[in-house]
Amino acid sequence: MPQLLRVQSFTVSADGYGAGDDQSLERPFGHADPGVLMSWLLGTASFPGRTSPGGSRGLDDHLARDFHHGIGAEIMGAHKFSPHRGPWVDHAWQGWWGDEPPFRTPVFVLTHHLRPSFTLGATTFHFVDATPQDVLDQARAAAQGRDVRLGGGAQTIRAFLDADLVDTLHVAVAPLELGSGTRLWESPDELDDRYHHDVVPSPSGVVHHLLWRR
Amino acid sequence: MPQLLRVQSFTVSADGYGAGDDQSLERPFGHADPGVLMSWLLGTASFPGRTSPGGSRGLDDHLARDFHHGIGAEIMGAHKFSPHRGPWVDHAWQGWWGDEPPFRTPVFVLTHHLRPSFTLGATTFHFVDATPQDVLDQARAAAQGRDVRLGGGAQTIRAFLDADLVDTLHVAVAPLELGSGTRLWESPDELDDRYHHDVVPSPSGVVHHLLWRR
C-alpha cells in the first residue's frame, strides 16, 4: 500500500480562507468563528473533539471519519499549534487541545523556533525547521506504514501543494465569506490540472471537495 | 462507544433489487450482472477485492472504505454464502471468495443447514440457525467491541430491519432496473419514519443513501 499524504476535513470559507486575520489566544481562527466555519463537523458522530454520544451519521460523518482512519502521523504549521510568534519565552504552551489532543499520533510542527519534543496523552509533538519534503520523510518514518495527515493551516497546505507532495485532499467549503485571512485557494478548480476532483454538496450546506492525484 | 449493526456498500438496482432471479454457481447474482450493478465499487482504491494498486479516491472510495473500518464481525444470509439449497451433501464449498475472503473477521452465516465452522485466510465462517437478535448477540460478542456489518443479501437485511436491529445503512442505488429478484425496498424513502436519510448523488452515476436511526 502506498503511504499517502492526505488533507482531511480541512474547512475553508466560500472565498477560500481557512482562517481569518488577527489570530490570538482567544481567537485561534482570527476573525473567523470556528463554530460557524466548522459547524458541519461539530455535529457529526465522528467529530474528533466529541465528548458525548450521539451526532449525525450521514455524509458529513462519513467524511469526518477519515480524519483518523489509516493515519500514523500529522504535519501542521506553527500557527495551527500556537498563536505565539517568534522565539519561545518558555515552554508552558502545549497547544489548544487540553490534556488529550485529538491527534493520537506523532505530530510534526513546522517552525523556525525549535523546542524539545513533548508527549500529551497519546500525542507526541515534535518541532522541525525543515523543507516540506524533509518533514514529510520524517513523518512517514514515524507513521510506520500508515498515511500522514497534513493538518493545515492554509499556508502549510499551500507549501506542500507547491512542492507537489499532497496525494489526496478533502476540503469542506462552508457557506460564508471571510474576505481576508490565510487563503487556501481562490477557487477549488485551480488544482484540476493535477487532481481528479469530486464535488459533493452536503445536506448540511457545505460542499465537500475530494481531490486525488491524476 | 456503541456497537453498531451497519450495512456497508450494499448495492441495489433503481427498482430496489439486490440480486436477480435464478442464482447459480455461475451467476451468484442471478440474472443481474455484478460487474454492472457494482461498477461504482470495483473502480475504487478501497474495493475489498482489489488486487492491484490504483483506483479512484473520490466520493465512492470514501464510502467503500467504511466496509472494513471499525468492523469486528459480519452476518450474512445463506444465499450470500452459497448457491446451494437444502442440506449439505459435503462441505467442499467454502464460499465464492477463494483462499483469502475479504471479510477478515468472524462471519456468521444464517442458515437452516448447519455445518462445522471453518477458517479460510483471516476469515472464520460460523453457521447459525437463529433469530436475528440471537445471531446479532453472537456476532457482537465475537466483534470484541467493534461494529458488526450486516452483509446481505436483501432478504437478510429486510429481516433485520423488520426486527428493528439495524443502526446505519449505506446503500448505493445503481442506474439500472432488474425487474425481479430479491428486493430490499420499493423506495429508499420507506424507512424515513425510522431513519435520518442523506441522499448523495455520485459523479459515477450511483446515488448513495446514508441512513441512521432517528
UniProtKB/TrEMBL annotation, chains A, B:
Q: Where are the transmembrane segments?
A: none
Pfam families xrefs = RibD_C
Family annotation (InterPro entries): DHFR-like_dom_sf, RibDG_C, Riboflavin_Biosynth_HTPR
Q: Which GO terms describe its molecular function?
A: 5-amino-6-(5-phosphoribosylamino)uracil reductase activity; DNA binding
Which keywords belong to this entry? DNA-binding
- GO biological process: any one? riboflavin biosynthetic process
Where does the Bacterial bifunctional deaminase-reductase C-terminal domain start and stop, copy by copy?
10-187
Q: Do the record's keywords include DNA-binding? A: yes
The protein in question is named DNA-binding protein
Species for this entry = Cellulomonas oligotrophica
